[in-house]
Amino acid sequence: MVPFALAGIAIWAVIGLVLLAFRGSLRAHGHEEWLRICLAGIAVGIPGLLTMLRHDANRRRRRRPAGTSG
After folding, report:
1. Would you tell me the crossing angle of helices 33-63 and 2-21 to the nearest 10 degrees?
2. What's the rounded mean pLDDT across residues 1-5?
3. Rounded CA separation 22/59 (Å)
């Protein structure tokens, strides 16, 4: 699932950068909230990604045979 989360965050970031280039046009047409939506997608994706990474690390630790380190 981590690659999907990374891809989602990357997509939101790319779309946000593209929309940033058209900020004046967005403002003129009353659609400036689209930039905030992209920022929200990134802001929600990062904690989700960190949660998945922590879960995966804990799962690997639990599955490691007893008596092994590392």
Report:
1. 160
2. 91
3. 44
User: CB of 2 within 8 A of CB of 45?
Assistant: no
Which spans in 22-32 are helix H?
23-28
DSSP structural state of residue 69 = -
Distance (Å, whole) CA 17 – CA 14 = 5
State the Cα–Cα distance between residues 48 and 56, nearest whole angstrom. 12
Q: What is the pTM of this model?
A: 0.78
- Compute φ and ψ for 66, nearest 5 degrees: -65, 140
Q: How far apart are CA 59 and CA 46, in angstroms?
A: 20
When pLDDT is cut at 50, 70 and 90, the band that residue 65 belongs to is: confident
Token pair belonging to 15? 């779309």
